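All the exercises in this workshop are built on plain-text protein records. Instead of coordinates, the fold is spelled out as a row of discrete tokens. Once this layout is familiar, the rest of the handout is easier to follow. The record below serves as our worked example for the rest of this section.
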Amino acid sequence: MDEKKRIYVIFDHSADMLTFSEIKSSCNAEGSCNYFYTIDYSDDYNNKIKANSAIKTASVVLVMVDSNSKYLGGMYDYEIDSALHQEKPIIVVNKNGNRSIDLDNCPICLRNKFALHISNSPDIINAAILVWPLYYDMHKDEEKHSMYLEDSIYKHYNL
């Protein structure tokens, strides 16, 4: 049986809590036993400390991107910067369905970074969680650009 992966999710807590819950339930409904988590933003004083600690234990980091993402700043950008600094494999999930980098919505701090950009689908998210950390670890020293999944993977899931 596969080891349970810890997936830290970065998203707009003021607008996307429902999306976070949907991802947790739909991705695990597909048969995986991954642990999706984030931090509680209620205590402003400790948010950065909690985020750094939480990201440190993650196998992979998911970043939810929509039309407001590039304007969020604050903790959203801080969490992304922390994941980049800790050299965590990052999967950017485009809520609008784009299958590659969405230059209109992708936060500036993620452009030209070695991250995988995918569409928002439980099957695709699970596939990315399976393959991206291994690929990232093998190629992080030589690759420095955004990546995307081949169309054949989307076709495999009838997308």
Helices lie at 17-29, 47-56, 74-85, 122-139, 151-156. The first strand starts at residue 6 and ends at 10. The chain has one domain: 6-156. The domain at 6-156 is CATH 3.40.50.11200 (Rossmann fold).
